[in-house]
Amino acid sequence: xxxxxxxxxxxxxxxxxxxxxxxxxxxxxxxxxxxxxxxxxxxxxxxxxxxxxxxxxxxxxxxxxxxxxxxxxxxxxxxxxxxxxxxxxxxxxxxxxxxxxxxxxxxxxxxxxxxxxxxxxxxxxxxxxxxxxxxxxxxxxxxxxxxxxxxxxxxxxxxxxxxxxxxxxxxxxxxxxxxxxxxxxxxxxxxxxxxxxxxxxxxxxxxxxxxxxxxxxxxxxxxxxxxxxxxxxxxxxxxxxxxxxxxxxxxxxxxxxxxxxxxxxxxxxxxxxxxxxxxxxxxxxxxxxxxxxxxxxxxxxxxxxxxxxxxxxxxxxxxxxxxxxxxxxxxxxxxxxxxxxxx
Length: 343
Prior knowledge:
Blueprint (H helix, E strand, L loop, with lengths): L5 E5 L28 H8 L9 E5 L3 H8 L5 E5 L5 H10 L6 E6 L3 E2 L2 H16 L3 E6 L10 E8 L3 E8 L4 H10 L2 E11 H11 L1 H12 L2 E2 L4 E2 L2 H4 L7 H6 L5 E6 L3 E2 L4 H7 L8 E9 L5 E12 L4 E6 L2 E6 L6 H8 L1
Parallel strand pairs: 1-2, 1-4, 2-3, 3-11, 6-12, 14-15, 15-16
Antiparallel strand pairs: 4-9, 5-13, 6-9, 7-8, 7-9, 8-12, 10-11, 16-17
Pfam family, one: ManC_GMP_beta-helix
GO molecular function: mannose-1-phosphate guanylyltransferase (GTP) activity
């Protein structure tokens, strides 16, 4: 019988694309954006059962207590980043803390997956490839041309379980996205990975040895209080702050993709939140005390305030404390600019 898969939940993001609701200790992954459970709690629930070991959660020091609270008594292991260094250093910490033969399932903590059985079936297919030394990524079957995601081009079939990755495509302009969807063989890059720790360690030694060395030093020089393991600050900050895609995935020659349709969303904008939330007959979505008169396709998150919209279309109003965000939903990708100025 195979050893259980080790879930690794990346929980260090700030979620500024959902500012002002997401900020600081109240990062996106800890909010109940569209359901009654936080995104982090939903992520934990997806990896319950005998196929999975107790999750390893990688987070920042400011989120430790929130992680413990939202775990709801679930057995977890905590690995605390001393500073935010992007996904490659975070994954390097998990690799350095694991035995070479451990299968690590890397997951963001702030995504939605509606069809969990389809997710589990994809993991089962991907585990065969991972045990054979492939670094596996899970590609989301696209249902539209979208400029907000990176894409993965599938190459040669590997049995009946997946495909060798031909190339990764950065977030494309709309005409390129349309042509890729029309051509077929492309999927969205969800940032979910499965691999043997030893395979990723070998890849990092070749393509980003400075990141791996910094992570190994950070663990060796860090502390452990019995409930959490802390990475050493000076050691960890020696790691360049880059994504795993840039550091390894785009360079390594044994990367496979397992395409899957599983009702996935990264909830990467207020526009995405609106598309997933409950709506009235006029396609308006509201949490809080919102009133819509002659308005369509709007989103209100009122935070206890009374918000009234009259004659508006496709507008978002998000209230959090003294901060009020008003914008066309179509410009949701620009929220980070406001967050940078206000925070």
